[in-house]
């Protein structure tokens, strides 16, 4: 399933607001009036009347409005009668549903899904800045001031459903927000106390013990920081992240977080520059970081810098099965909690199937045509949509025992 999370999918049907605004999708026209000012009413059927007081109105599917004494069915600019901020929603975003949170930019006719209530793959982008420059970065860093992202999240978080199971915090490097990151985690703990929070970080900023203590003092009951280590050799890790001294800072960051009782996940992306020393890294982890809460070994997502450096970084998963198997079994025998992300079952040795997880976010997850005849499809995590750029020669239908 591939979803567009943003785009110019709005056609204005009435007088629009001058600037962007945030709202929550509501499919109940009888919602309490007191709460309507932050709700965006989504109509999927024709209507002669519209309830007043909603922040905006979206007409999706067969939704139309015929009121105020003039015919507005099927779109077109309105004149009088129609409420402010009424838009026809394009087909690409009609998956939006009750409880989702969106940003509407009237000037550009754009809409962005910031949170999808039914999705298990919600992530909060907090900055596009980063102090690493990883050769395979799926979201290459930018240098512009994007402090508005955190300001926006202060409005978005209170609109999220309390039953949300998990949220990711991602960047860029979230820890560059400093106290802003601590504030965000505290906000999540207050509004969504039953929601697990997973922060993707390079760990370097947490080499400052005072900063790590600030995160630990939030006391979030279900918080984990995912931090990559790409080699047991400092120079190889520093090369992958393109930052001299990063290996030392990252290790100190991990140690500080654990000292402050924050859960830590070790992450490792497999590509041509990293796979050869994967077994040595596994031994390094069991000797030095056995207390880590989880180890995730991940297939490469072919987007961003990975796409730009494709010829240098691509390696068929069949060609690192030996290193992957040795590392996973060593970590498992040592008692570490280890998983394989982003790799389909057909390219893995059967002894590793029990470690494979369905890890690819729902909006960029897909299967190939050959998967239609595979009996393991329902158990398999499938592929990134970008995987069509290079395909393993091991992709084929398989049967599970």
TrEMBL record:
InterPro entries to which the protein is assigned, alphabetical: Aldolase_TIM, Radical_SAM_PqqE_MftC-like, rSAM, rSAM_paired_HxsC, rSAM_sf
Secretion signal span: none
Keywords from the named record: Iron, Iron-sulfur, Metal-binding, S-adenosyl-L-methionine
Organism: Pendulispora albinea
Chain coiled-coil ranges: none
Protein name: His-Xaa-Ser system radical SAM maturase HxsC
Gene3D superfamilies (alphabetical): Aldolase class I
Cofactors, names only: [4Fe-4S] cluster
All copies of domain Radical SAM core, residue ranges: 116-333
């Amino acid at each position: 399933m591939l979803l567009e999370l943003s785009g110019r999918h709005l056609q204005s049907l009435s007088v629009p607001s001058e600037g962007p605004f945030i709202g929550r999708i509501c499919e109940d026209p009888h919602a309490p009036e007191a709460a309507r000012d932050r709700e965006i009413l989504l109509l999927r059927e024709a209507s002669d009347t519209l309830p007043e007081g909603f922040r905006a109105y979206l007409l999706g599917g067969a939704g139309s409005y015929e009121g105020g004494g003039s015919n507005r069915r099927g779109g077109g600019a309105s004149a009088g009668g129609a409420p402010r901020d009424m838009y026809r929603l394009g087909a690409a975003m009609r998956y939006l549903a009750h409880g989702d949170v969106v940003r509407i930019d009237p000037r550009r006719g754009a809409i962005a899904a910031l949170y999808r209530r039914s999705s298990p793959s919600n992530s909060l982008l907090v900055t596009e800045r980063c102090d690493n420059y990883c050769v395979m970065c799926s979201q290459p860093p930018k240098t512009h001031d994007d402090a508005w992202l955190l300001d926006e999240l202060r409005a978005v978080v209170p609109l999220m459903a309390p039953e949300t199971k998990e949220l990711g915090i991602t960047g860029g490097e979230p820890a560059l927000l400093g106290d802003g990151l601590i504030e965000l985690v505290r906000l999540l703990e207050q509004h969504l106390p039953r929601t697990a929070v997973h922060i993707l970080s390079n760990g370097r900023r947490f080499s400052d013990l005072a900063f790590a203590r600030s995160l630990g003092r939030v006391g979030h009951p279900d918080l984990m920081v995912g931090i990559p280590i790409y080699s047991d050799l400092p120079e190889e890790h520093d090369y992958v992240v393109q930052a001299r001294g990063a290996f030392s800072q990252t290790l100190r960051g991990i140690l500080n977080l654990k000292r402050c009782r924050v859960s830590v996940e070790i992450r490792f992306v497999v590509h041509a520059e990293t796979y050869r020393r994967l077994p040595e890294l596994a031994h390094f982890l069991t000797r030095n970081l056995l207390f880590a809460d989880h180890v995730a070994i991940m297939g490469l997502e072919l987007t961003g810098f990975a796409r730009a450096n494709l010829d240098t970084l691509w390696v068929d998963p069949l060609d690192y099965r030996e290193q992957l198997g040795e590392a996973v079994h060593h970590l498992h025998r040592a008692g570490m909690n280890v998983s394989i992300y982003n790799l389909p079952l057909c390219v893995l040795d059967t002894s590793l199937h029990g470690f494979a997880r369905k890890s690819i976010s729902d909006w960029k997850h897909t299967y190939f045509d050959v998967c239609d005849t595979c009996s393991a499809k329902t158990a398999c995590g499938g592929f990134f949509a970008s995987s069509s750029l290079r395909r393993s020669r091991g992709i084929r239908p398989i049967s599970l025992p």
